[in-house]
Amino acid sequence: MSDNDAAPENPLRKELPEEVPPAPAEAEPEAPQAPSGLTGRQRLVKGLWPPRVTRAQLIVALLLFGLGFGLAVQVASNSDGDDALRGARQEDLVRILDELDDRTERLEDEKQGLEEQRDELENSSNQAEEARKQTVEKERQLGILAGTVAAQGPGITMTIDDTKGTVEAHMLLDAVQELRAAGAEAIQVNGVRVVASTYLTDSGNSVSVDGNKINAPYRFKVIGKPQDLEPALNIPGGVVQTLEKEQATVTVERSDKIIVDALRAAERPDYARSSSR
């Protein structure tokens, strides 16, 4: 067949649009289906494993593990100690008990010492005031001994009347030494205070005390215990008998109140210094 014999094309077919295929419908989401063939227990295990552990949970787990380990070690140590005591001899048990008693006693002593220190610290203000009072009292006592402070108290008065001029300085010095040995705490001779450095010298028909000339009658004012001072002067061969041999008259009187008011100026040593810091 020739080309001319071909059937003519239908003009209507060219003008019709081509048919558009319908858009596929959107697929609806399918509900999840449980795996087939799994029981409820298996599904639970599959949901819990592998576990999802947070950092906080991990830290808590480590702490609990450490606590449990420490408790286990302590229990084991106590068990070992109990086992050792069970197997110990009676002598060892007695020795251990004695050591525990000694240790308890030492701890009690330490406790008592600490409590005493606490009380001392709590009363530090009172102690400071007491220390100040003691310092003042000590200064007063030293002042009496040094002759820089007046003093009063029980004692004796000894009067030596030398009408013949036979009393010498060494005789008065013997009287001072005898009084000191008997416990005299303060001595005054004719208005001159006698101290540790006092010296007596003859000065013509009189006597000088630390360079101060004094004349008879020599009057000693002494503070101390009268019951000791008077017998010390009247012992056989003592001061009173020696002065009476020199034709001097000696009178000793006890008194409840003797006033020693002669003072010495405080002297600063030239070389000696306090060693305390």
UniProtKB/TrEMBL annotation:
InterPro entries in alphabetical order: DUF881
Source organism superkingdom: Bacteria
Transmembrane segments: 56-76
Spans annotated as Disordered: 1-39, 106-134
Keywords from the named record: Membrane, Transmembrane, Transmembrane helix
Protein name: DUF881 domain-containing protein
Basic and acidic residues bias (residue ranges): 106-116
Keyword Membrane: yes
Presence of keyword Transmembrane helix: yes
Family per record: Belongs to the UPF0749 family.
Pfam (any one): DUF881
Lineage: Bacteria, Bacillati, Actinomycetota, Actinomycetes, Kitasatosporales
